[in-house]
Amino acid sequence: MNPLIRQGDVLIIPSNTSATGTKLPHLTLAEGEVTGHRHRISNGEAELFDRDGVLYLKVLSPTAILTHEEHAAVTIPQGDWEIRIQREYSPEGWRYVAD
């Protein structure tokens, strides 16, 4: 199983279910409210879905690259992923508070 991936406040969690829902016409996982910077898939083949307010990413190519203007690029392996935005940090371990 793939490990949790993090880029800034975006958590990319391996999904036990297939990434399905309403297919979105973009590959932006999150956008900064103040800066307008985006966490987006910039390389590789992928699809992004919204299911009941939760984003799911399906990486179709062997890997996809997640980029952001203020963070190092992150490689995401092929597979199904759930996208969460971390709203609160605990040094004992990560946790998120959903919108």
Question: What's this entry about, in short?
Answer:
The protein is mainly beta and 99 residues long.
Walk me through this protein's architecture.
The chain contains no helices and ten strands. 0% of the residues lie in helices and 61% in strands. The strands form two sheets. Strands 1, 2, 3, 4, 5, 6, 7 and 8 form an eight-stranded antiparallel sheet that branches. The protein has 99 residues and is mainly beta.
* Strand segment tally: 10
**Biggest beta-sheet profile:** 8 strands, antiparallel
Low-confidence stretches at least 5 residues in length (pLDDT < 50)?
none
**Category by helix and strand content:** mainly beta
Mean pLDDT score, rounded? Answer: 85
Q: Could you state the order of secondary-structure elements as H and E?
A: EEEEEEEEEE
Report the principal-axis shape: globular
Quickly count the helices.
0
Rg for CA atoms = 13 Å
Distance, first to last CA: 27 Å
